[in-house]
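for the record, two folds in this file. i put them one after another cuz i was lazy. first one right below, seq on top, structure tokens after. the second one comes after a little note so u can tell where it starts
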Amino acid sequence: MADTSAAASHGQPGDVTKRDFLKLVAGAGAAIGAAAMAWPLIDSMNPSKDVLAMSSVEVDLTPIAVGQGITLMWRGKPVFVRHRTEQEIKDAEAVQLGQLIDPQADDARVKPGEKQWIVLVGICTHLGCIPTGNKPTEMRGDWGGWFCPCHGSQYDTSGRVRHGPAPANLAVPPYAFESDTKIKIG
């Protein structure tokens, strides 16, 4: 009779041995350990709480009288919010697009039904200066909007560049009306 105990001690192909089990456990432990070490590094790349807090700003429009504007900070940039007069709206809508350096209709720069409010990033598109004109006592240029005293760029009441070296209109940040008297920027 043949001794089958010798064949059983070496195992047959396809049988699971202790060594295979130990390799599986060691591999799984290494993968879990690598993930546990990588997670804090990946998590540190998320924006901090102070950055998230600056990502959006709520603005109460109630104290802004017709013809006035305010300047606030959003993501480290000045933002102009102006309550436009009926005449400012008419002037902005009457402009021929062919007269503009960066043609854009007034309707594309304001929210539908809210033409009296214009919200703009207050950074000149030429060299990043901050234009004047958000306060009634400041120079507003020939078109009644904003004036960049550094190089003479002028913007109309829709924030469109009308004169000077600026190549583009003042940017319109993402914003939405939360109510008739409140907007959220960002």
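(here's the note) second protein begins now
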Amino acid sequence: MNRRKALSIFAKANIALGVIAIIFAIITVLFLGFPQLFHIFNLSSPEAELATLTQSIDADFERYNPERGWEEKKEEENEREATENFQRTLPSLDFSLPHGKILNIPKIGVEGEILEGEDYDTLLEQGVWRVNDFGTPDDELVMILASHRFGYITWTNEHRNKNSFYNLPKTTVGDTVEIIWEQRLYEYEIYKVEESTKITDYSADLILYTCKLYNSPDRIFRYANRIN
């Protein structure tokens, strides 16, 4: 009798553990497939992601002087022009393009407005932010664009797909990035992919980055050079 009772308890315990494992697996799949669900259970997650995304900005400003970077890059450009007889010009004006500033990453479906200003808290709540004090497509300084990876529960799926960098890790070397800037189309090619706590290559023409996780210091970086 005692043996039957023990077997019954053991069987019930196994069933309970199996149910718990199934529930955990379902929750894991839901969070991986629909990261916005995280916000339903943790309303502070956007703030955690924002802190992760922006915590190195001030440090980057200290490590990198845009004026000094411009001089170094200009010197490199001059050397390349002397050896390769190459001079890069602005893309032609295309009046069929919008007047605004738009980022396109065809591989992952990003097609969002590039927002500018110093209030990155507010701007990142809306979408893609150009890190101020760095470059634009029509000058010699590196251009740095950041966006949330997971975003906000208030974002629609369409807005999230077009403006978040959730799928930035899926891009790889050789993928193209397009920027429409005042009716000119600038084309870039990714030459380096990286996970790091800071920017490691300021020689790029364009740097894209987002956080890896909500509260991890690691970030996803993509470095690209202009090709047109």
